[in-house]
Amino acid sequence: MFMTPTTETMVGIGGAAESTDMVLNIGPQHPSTHGVLRLKLVLDGERITRAEPVIGYMHRGAEKLFEARDYRQIIMLANRHDWLSAFSNELGVVLAVERMLGMEVPERAVWLRTLLAELNRVLNHLMFLGSYPLELGGITPIFYAFREREELQHVMEEVSGGRMHYMFNRVGGLKEDLPAGWTARARAAVTDVRSRMDRFDDLVLGNEIFRGRTRGVGVLSPEAVHAYGVSGPIARGSGVDFDLRRDEPYLAYGELGDVLKVVTREEGDCLARFECLLEQTHNALDLAEACLDRLAELPPGPVNQRLPKVLKAPEGHTYAWTENPLGINGYYLVSKGEKTPYRLKLRSASYNNIQALTELLPGTLVADMVAILGSMFFVVGDIDK
């Protein structure tokens, strides 16, 4: 009996013997866009095994510029890091300086600030309510979102003179009093926008494709929320029931407890984050109307304090934080008694929120990456500041 001779062949497979992972760069995009984010993904086939957000492409050193500007000028720097929330950004700075000075703001200014902060919240949220479905292939909602934004932009532009960077806050109050008849026009705009907000429920939440792309996708646990310092609608979408307007009231929020509603969801997925954003927009319109009602009851009076020509904060330090549209925005102010801050550290919401992607993306499919990234509702300038 004869044995058939066998031949063994060794095939060289090079680096594939160690790993079949592939590194994929998402971005950075064209340099003329409003800031870029790069995601470094490690893939195993279609599944993401590791994700690293690479930031800092548009870092402008705002915190160092704060140190070379006086307390009037830094307001201009502060309102630009989140260009969708300019009024709210200014607010944190002036609240910190007023706290250092021990300054009381006139009552009308307090209620006006609260009103404008809520209108600014609606403007911010409408952008994401329109752009997020667009990223998933639904073009129609953004047209509705921009129509509602324009109606509110008109009243914000009329009162402040600016479309995006309002520069309406001042240390001690606001720049100036309201134009004649402005509150009636603001009330009409709020009423009109609210009457059409149900379109987003019908167009987006009622769309089975949108729900299929977002339900159960990108689940962020409450533990991860706390670990990364995530805040705002993203944290509340994971069941973390925290809102500075209710839990550490500032401005007039302490008197609006019966109107203010902290919206939460337990699922922690992309759909839950969108639902939180949408319902929070409804509530911001309710709060704006409540502020208009209160302003109508107040007697005429000043909206700011008279300040010295050279404003100096006393030596010391303080921390002021606000519930910005995207989450917690904090300013740590250190003064040496000069007319400029010795140090002003900015804690922006988007910076912390985007770090959670390192925990959120691994284990998901590349196809779901856009849905997850869009549901984080960030502004790149707010990351890089």
From TrEMBL:
Q: What is its main location?
A: membrane
Q: What does this protein do?
A: NDH-1 shuttles electrons from NADH, via FMN and iron-sulfur (Fe-S) centers, to quinones in the respiratory chain. The immediate electron acceptor for the enzyme in this species is believed to be a menaquinone. Couples the redox reaction to proton translocation (for every two electrons transferred, four hydrogen ions are translocated across the cytoplasmic membrane), and thus conserves the redox energy in a proton gradient.
Q: Which reaction equation describes what this protein catalyses?
A: a quinone + NADH + 5 H(+)(in) = a quinol + NAD(+) + 4 H(+)(out)
Stored Pfam families: Complex1_49kDa
Extent of the signal sequence: none
Whether Magnesium counts among this entry's keywords is: no
| Residue ranges constituting the NADH-quinone oxidoreductase subunit D domain according to the UniProt record | 136-309, 311-385
The record's GO CC annotations read: plasma membrane
Q: Which family does it belong to?
A: Belongs to the complex I 49 kDa subunit family.
Reported EC number(s) for this entry are 7.1.1.-
- A single MF term (Gene Ontology): NADH dehydrogenase (quinone) (non-electrogenic) activity
The record's InterPro entries line, in alphabetical order, gives:
NADH_Q_OxRdtase_suD, NADH_UbQ_OxRdtase_49kDa_CS, NDH1_su_D/H, NiFe-Hase_large
Where does this polypeptide localize? Cell membrane
- The name of this protein is NADH-quinone oxidoreductase subunit D
Q: How does it sit in the membrane?
A: Peripheral membrane protein
> Which controlled-vocabulary keywords does the entry list?
Cell membrane, Membrane, NAD, Quinone, Translocase, Transport
